[in-house]
């Protein structure tokens, strides 16, 4: 298995868009369409946000993660953000997610940032056990409680 930039694998854009659309867009009731998500992932970059990487093995996309400049409008001073971490269910528990996160931290360091943030509604314990530090809990525009965590990238 290896991690690479999505922009190097344009044939995987629709697959990544479908994973993210089903997991993070449909479930939130967002107005974004699947086509909007495809367009978004068609424009990810390597040295500027948004950045998306994928885990590949034998040509199969196992999972993905993105880096956004901002993933929470009410906290615009926190930059950048780990976002949309998703591993296909059949590949969970095999370290794919951690390798995606590790690559994200490496990219953020290369770009000169010292801190990486993330938001989560349900997985605070997962991230805390992996070295992330709790920052605060906020309410989003739908009044859902969101934990913000950070990782020092030194």
From TrEMBL:
Gene3D superfamilies (alphabetical): 3.40.630.30
Protein name: N-acetyltransferase domain-containing protein
Species of provenance: Cerasibacillus quisquiliarum
Organism domain of life: Bacteria
Pfam families (alphabetical): Acetyltransf_1 (PF00583)
Domain N-acetyltransferase: 3-152
Family matches, as InterPro entries: Acyl_CoA_acyltransferase, GNAT_dom, NAA80
GO terms for cellular component: cytoplasm
GO molecular function: acetyl-CoA binding; N-acetyltransferase activity
